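Lab channel / #folding
Pinned by the channel admin:
"Please post every new chain as: sequence first, then the structure tokens as a reply. Keep commentary short and put observations after the output so the thread stays searchable."

First post following the new format, from NK:
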Amino acid sequence: MTLRPASPRDAPAQVLLRGLAVLEALNQRPISSLGQIAAATGLAKPTLVRVLTILALKEYAERLPNRRGYRLGGRVRALSAGYRTSASVVALAQPLMARFTASHQWPLAIATLDGNAMRLEASTQQDTAFAAAADRGRLARRMPLLTSALGMAYLAFCPEGERGTLLDMVCPADERDGLVHQLSAIVAQGYAISPPLPGEQAIGFAVPILSAGAVLGCITLRYFGRALSEDQVAARYLRPLQTMASVIAANQRLGRD
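Reply from TO:
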């Protein structure tokens, strides 16, 4: 990552990017010299020394004695903890989702939070005839928080502080009260539902994967409204989906411990 000179207007962003660039450079080898880091980042050595000093103070980098160079600090491991959690949750969910689809025929998908949207991580759509007609090409797609069952389930069940941050990003202030009321209703019924998205025929029915008050991800069942009503879907599948989500969360905690 080579950085351009910072202007006063974007200085804070450039400071952050410099730190990230240095961490990327340190990740390329076990021990890096100042010259190697400078070559990888395009930063002047005096600037690098300041960045490395700050990173070392926070234990993201470590300066080795006798001018042997620099290496990543132990605190860097915490930066990838959320990614590993998401990956493990998806891995745990996939066999359970496959068994559900084999038994009930409807496809399931799992999504995790990706900034201000939900990212579809895995699906059983390939195991159903349903997928060929309705949901082809959905994997890795980012789903809006406010217009998808996945996003609304996440917003409804995530911690209050996180919800406030997300709503600041996606919801106009004058619409906040109505949305908060809608999210409270989702919590009360245990699931979120969304109408078909443009160009699709399927309805989403989503539940959260909850662990210690946090939402690890959400699972959605995709169904045709002409085949089932919302009440029928809730009566038949809400409890099995909630049980699946609980098993995923419990297995994720066991794996982490």
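NK: Strands lie at 61-64, 69-72, 108-114, 117-123, 142-144, 192-194, 202-211, 214-224.
TO: also worth noting, The chain has a mean pLDDT of 86.
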